[in-house]
Amino acid sequence: MSVLQQSRSEYHRRICSEILGIKGGVLNNADRDSATSRQLAEGIARQLPYPLCPNPPSGQTAGKRFEEITAWFLREVFQNHFSHLRPGKWEFFIAGLNMPAGGIAQFEQYEHLSFLSQITEEYKDLAAVLGTEYLVMPDILIGRYAVEDAEIDHYAPLIGAHSNSIALYTPLRQRNRPPNHLILHATISCKWTIRSDRSQNVRTEALNLIRNCKGHTPHILAVTAEPMPTRIASLALGTGDIDCVYHFALPELKTALQQSGNEDQRDMLETLLSGRRLRDIADLPFDLSA
Q1: Which of 5, 3, 1 is nearest to 280 (CA)?
Q2: What are the start-end ranges of the H helices in the chain?
Q3: Which of 8, 123, 189, 290 lies 20 to 30 Å from 67 when distance is taken between CA atoms?
């Protein structure tokens, strides 16, 4: 078994152990009012070779654990095993755990939002005009630290003796910014299940990230355990906001759909896959390396 397969299996083991389970006679990632949702959730669960959580959490608790386990998977694979594909020193932040005060305003591309927040705190009338939608707090943030000159010159004197007269503005160079400066590499929204209101919140956050960015836009991604492709489509279809949506068990979802015989859901899944709008969790470390 490859390193990626092992990490994906451990990801599923932890989800089964800590989140996925039967609550009120229904798997807690299914909609109890939808026979299709229940059938697909059961079809996915049967393919995961681990015992389900005996006392599964619900609501926000399930969502928080999903964020934490997803962040663990990405840190394990991307940071520890993909350094040859995407070198750099990285930091992972999870909402409610180690998220920096101010969220995205602590990163290079969004530092100006911190000043804007201070102004609107002082002048309430201005806050009423501008709103506070720019204060985005995604579930997971991945930041990259700026690079020291010694590392820049590791293979050749790219800066060398001219270090005081060249490349004085790029944020990737540590000497151009304060210590421990971070560039926002990716924002990830985690949705254990998807309802229309939740998908719209993710899209609103994505558009605000794009609109308020100075410099290059970070990866804007979403991860879900929702079993119904038509509901995933409310988040995945279209372009211009979210880069892509990732399913926690996409091959297992495909098999569950084949066994279900539900043509409408299967057609929607094919639309999402052929349109490159839905991928598996194992694809995400590769896309973070792009």
Answers
A1: 5
A2: 3-18, 35-47, 59-74, 80-81, 111-122, 124-130, 149-152, 196-211, 229-236, 250-260, 263-274, 284-288
A3: 290
Q: Counting beta carbons within 10 angstroms of the beta carbon of residue 104, is it exposed (0 to 12), middle (13 to 18) or buried (19 or more)?
A: buried
250: number of Cβ within 10 Å: 19
How far is the C-alpha of 206 from the C-alpha of 192, rounded, in Å? Answer: 18
Please give the backbone phi and psi of residue 196, each rounded to the nearest 5 degrees, phi first.
Answer: -60, -40
Give one DSSP letter per residue of 124-187, joined into a string.
HHHHHHH-STT----SEEEEEE-B-HHHHTSSS-SSGGGTTTSS-S-TTBGGGS-TT-EEEEEE
Q: Pairing mode, if any, of strands 219-224 and 182-191?
A: parallel
* Contact of 269 with 234, CB cutoff 8 Å: no
**What does the angle CA 65 – CA 68 – CA 72 come to, to the nearest 5 degrees?**
140
Query: In the numeric block, which tokens belong to residue 127?
Result: 């806050």
Residue 207 lies in a domain: yes
* Residue 228 belongs to domain spanning: 62-146+181-288
Q: 191 - beta bridge partners?
A: 224
∠ CA(205), CA(38), CA(264), 5° rounding?
Answer: 75
pTM confidence score? 0.93
Per the structure block, which two tokens stand in for 216?
């290059």
Number of domains in the chain: 1
Per-residue pLDDT tens digits for 200-236? 788 888 988 999 999 999 999 999 999 999 999 999 9
Output the CA angle 60-66-71, nearest 5 degrees.
130
Cβ(21)–Cβ(56) under 8 Å? yes
Residue 47 falls inside a structural domain: no
Largest CA distance in the chain: 70
CATH number for the domain harbouring residue 140: 3.40.50.10010
Going by C-alpha positions, the residue among 142, 151, 246 that lies closest to residue 194 is 246
Phi-psi region of 131 (alpha: psi -120 to 50; beta: other; left: phi over 0): left
